[in-house]
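The following record pairs a protein chain with its ligand, adenosine-5'-triphosphate.
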Amino acid sequence: MASVKVAVRVRPMNRREKDLEAKFIIQMEKSKTTITNLKIPEGGTGDSGRERTKTFTYDFSFYSADTKSPDYVSQEMVFKTLGTDVVKSAFEGYNACVFAYGQTGSGKSYTMMGNSGDSGLIPRICEGLFSRINETTRWDEASFRTEVSYLEIYNERVRDLLRRKSSKTFNLRVREHPKEGPYVEDLSKHLVQNYGDVEELMDAGNINRTTAATGMNDVSSRSHAIFTIKFTQAKFDSEMPCETVSKIHLVDLAGSERADATGATGVRLKEGGNINKSLVTLGNVISALADLSQDAANTLAKKKQVFVPYRDSVLTWLLKDSLGGNSKTIMIATISPADVNYGETLSTLRYANRAKNIINKPTINEDANVKLIRELRAEIARLKTLLAQGNQIALLDSPTALSMEEKLQQNEARVQELTKEWTNKWNETQNILKEQTLALRKEGIGVVLDSELPHLIGIDDDLLSTGIILYHLKEGQTYVGRDDASTEQDIVLHGLDLESEHCIFENIGGTVTLIPLSGSQCSVNGVQIVEATHLNQGAVILLGRTNMFRFNHPKEAAKLREKRKSGLLSSFSLSMTDLSKSRENLSAVMLYNPGINAYIEEEVQRRLQDLHRVISEGCSTSADTMKDNEKLHNGTIQRKLKYERMVSRSLGANPDDLKDPIKISIPRYVLCGQGKDAHFEFEVKITVLDETWTVFRRYSRFREMHKTLKLKYAELAALEFPPKKLFGNKDERVIAERRSHLEKYLRDFFSVMLQSATSPLHINKVGLTLSKHTICEFSPFFKKGVFDYSSHGTG
Ligand SMILES: Nc1ncnc2c1ncn2[C@@H]1O[C@H](COP(=O)(O)OP(=O)(O)OP(=O)(O)O)[C@@H](O)[C@H]1O
């Protein structure tokens, strides 16, 4: 049993009150708060014998009216007095609730949220929670899971303050769970890993809060806001599993004054009416609970049937547990010090005085299985004591009349089983947590996606796409296909040559294999695969023609980093050729995916350094690994040779390259789309030194490019782009003709650009360094490259 703790806090005079030359009517001394009615003369009494001053005693009276006063209570002091208890309750497994009540502009939001640089209770409690989690995990094996939600009750309707716009946010239903009590259906819950995560959510939620100007306070919020933290903790305490869940409601109520006192009309009056409905119900609930506890205290009094009207408002229904139930609850009544607000302030003080009488029944919220384990263990201890005393009597109350020893064994087996079950469950929860908390980690101005599971990162070739998709490859099989597949696919994709059941990623004990299905197009590091292929950290995967991914294996990457540190990398099974190819492909990808650069650039740089070291140390990859790789990837040897050529070229330039620094060919064209949308795309293969990539474009796109660049580089005007008469007819002959035209045009195009003084590609400027990067910088038109193994078109 615990009474609701009540604190009163008085704020400084605000501008409006100062302008009105209002008088200060609040005095505080220790836990006492006194209010003076200036209308009643000193030493006298008012009508019907009213006193000039009224004094109330609370758990705390916080004087925050004057920063210079020695009694001044700062935000930090409020947290130390009240907030630290909330953090403690959470760690002990109790529910907790803090709500701020008071007139508009009296300091509720300031107390609960605070201002920037002067944060209030909610941020401080969250910060306190995480700093204790960090401390605990340093010396304890405990695990934690923290989830937050943020809602607003406005006009008796519940709104999710944290849900994305696309989902339903308004008018959420309040329902009741048979065990867990009232809850908001579909309210979004957000896993958080650190205080930064919470801060972001709080900011987003606060921006969403409904605010409207009133005569009393320009930014007065007209809604009730409930910020909820669900905090789960699990550990082994002297071999004993221990799991507790605590729910913390932090509530910023709307202004308590009557609507008419603020001069509000129309819609606002309606809001006021509803706000008051919640607050009036809150008042009624508080009164009923106070009556109940007084009855309980007075055992001689005949018990009255007291009805607590929780259901009369959304607010009281949702806070049912916090008011007279299973929670350690704190009410902070905020007041103005000015005589002009005498009536409202007195009513707040009375309200708070009444709340003092509420008795709650907080209990530790222990996991049911853990509770059972604890009870069984107690029983085992009791039986062992009896046995030790030589008390070998049969347990007569047991239906099977088991001997004490049998019963003991049974209990021990059950405890073992339950403990194992619990441990598995928690480990699973932790894994899910890890999966879900990859979210975002800030590092300087960068944002890092973190995950411990092997995963794929989508590399979108749509230049207008800005999101990054990450797919986890869970233990077992992950099916990839279209949404029209006969069985449900774990990863649903679309795009050219993507089969309805395309492939499977198999993760067995951390070894991930890509299995192509029914002749589907899958390639790894630019090489099409036809059988199950083991994936290495950093592999670039293409499914169909347009779905490209980078494969990340965080554990393998961590091991590689360790090897690199200890200098063992060169003998480790890193395939130079794979890395080289992967880097090549990644570079291509990065060029047209700026969003992903921040994430992978560092890794690519590291890989490059590794490669250089391997080369300079003259080490080759181990024979076995080479063999495996050769088996797995056709063409590996060729690429190795190519790589070596590249290295030797960087040592001494081949004069031929200067003559012909860029090679263009159009090895084939591909029919894309269907019916009316069918069109041909030409695969243009561009080779600069040893970088080769392809650009897939329809003929008209090349013409657009020509027109655009012609405006910038006058020399191009002299080049003739194939005339329009070639268009319209799409038979093989015309397409083949276009191919040769286009090939010639592009060769001429680059030749002109290499000689143009204004062009960044001028041979004197780029020389041997002409690279894909230079060309793509010159025009992003050449950025787009996908690997294609389509059987359409000519080979
Ligand atoms: N203890 C305090 N010390 C300094 N400034 C305060 C204090 N309490 C409130 N204020 C200031 O008074 C103004 C009104 O406070 P606040 O917005 O917290 O009121 P409120 O009760 O939440 O109002 P509403 O019901 O409209 O939400 C704010 O500018 C706030 O910064």
